[in-house]
Amino acid sequence: MTEKKKVLVLFDIDGTLTPSRKTLTEDMDNFITELQTKVDVGVVGGSDLPKQKEQLGENATTRFKYSFSENGVIAFEEGKLISKSSITDKLGEEKLQKFLNFCLHYIADFELPVKRGTFIEFRNGMINISLIGRNCSYEERLQYVELEKEGQFRQKFVKILQEKFSEYGLVFSIGGQISIDVFPQGWSKEYCLQFVNNKGYDEIHFFGDKTYKGGNDYEIFIHEETIGHTVTCPEDTVKICKELFF
Ligand code: M1P
């Protein structure tokens, strides 16, 4: 008799398990519960833990075998915090300030039909920068998405940051709809693999929607230790998983 394979399925959150910044639907919740009877399930998001909890529920760290926020810089295994790192230690105060000050100047000079608050959100393992400001409403967020299709605001900003801070060893990732994630090289979603690659899995699958070069799922998607799957929306995630694991 052939032995059952030990499989881990890691999911991106926005655009893969939920629409961007939205919560899990009841159907998705039920699907995850069923999937967990067949394989181990983990989540790896770019957002910080409070946002992850808003989307997945207060039990986000216990609900999944592995729960990785900020790409795994905050890592939980079966509800226990197993690792936490900081961009402050990695980069040092001098470089950090030079970088933040440059971004603040750029944002201050940047004009949009609507600008709100929280242009820079400082997290443990990354800096999240938004030209419109993270405090914008959901409607304002969607308007920005439309405007950016033509304006390519973040792409242009990233190009400038890449040139200006080429010596800093930073990655600039356009993961969500209104912001740019900035973190040290190697701290993209592939970072979380160090916590699962020694656990005896025969296969580690990763599902994400931004798997193209420059997207925040790219590095883990192409990683040699994962079997990568590109999805177009949460319903697509369910469809592919059912074909593979049910
Ligand atoms: O999970 C994807 C991204 O979600 C948010 O992006 P935005 O607000 O731009 O849609 C942010 O939390 C970002 O850090 C994260 O990568």
From the structure above, extract its key features:
metal ion binding, alpha/beta, binds 1-O-phosphono-alpha-D-mannopyranose, phosphomannomutase activity, 246 residues, 2 domains, seven-stranded mixed β-sheet, Hypothetical Protein, Haloacid Dehalogenase-like Hydrolase, Chain: A, domain 2, four-stranded antiparallel β-sheet, globular, cytoplasm, Rossmann fold, single chain, Phosphomannomutase
Outline the secondary-structure elements.
Layout lengths: L6 E5 L14 H10 L4 E5 L4 H8 L3 H4 L2 E4 L4 E4 L2 E5 L2 H5 L1 H17 L10 E3 L4 E4 L7 H14 L1 H12 L5 E4 L5 E6 L18 E6 L9 H5 L4 E4 L3 H12 L1
Parallel strand pairs: 1-2, 1-10, 2-3, 10-11
Antiparallel strand pairs: 3-4, 4-5, 6-7, 7-9, 8-9
The protein binds 1-O-phosphono-alpha-D-mannopyranose (M1P).
The site of 1-O-phosphono-alpha-D-mannopyranose (M1P) has 16 residues, from strand 9.
Question: Shape, please?
Answer: globular
Strand content: 15-25%
The order of strands across the largest sheet is: 5-4-3-2-1-10-11
Straight-line distance between termini: 20 Å
Strand and helix order: EHEHHEEEHHEEHHEEEHEH
Largest sheet, described in full? 7 strands, mixed
| Small molecules bound | 1-O-phosphono-alpha-D-mannopyranose
C-alpha-based Rg, rounded: 18 Å
Can you give the helix content as a percent range?
25-40%
Arithmetic mean pLDDT: 96
For the secondary structure, the number of strands is: 11
Tally the helices: what do you get? 9
Give unreliable regions as ranges: none
CATH homologous superfamily placement of the largest domain: HAD superfamily/HAD-like
Pathway: Nucleotide-sugar biosynthesis; GDP-alpha-D-mannose biosynthesis; alpha-D-mannose 1-phosphate from D-fructose 6-phosphate: step 2/2
Protein name: Phosphomannomutase
Function: Involved in the synthesis of the GDP-mannose and dolichol-phosphate-mannose required for a number of critical mannosyl transfer reactions.
GO molecular function: metal ion binding; phosphomannomutase activity
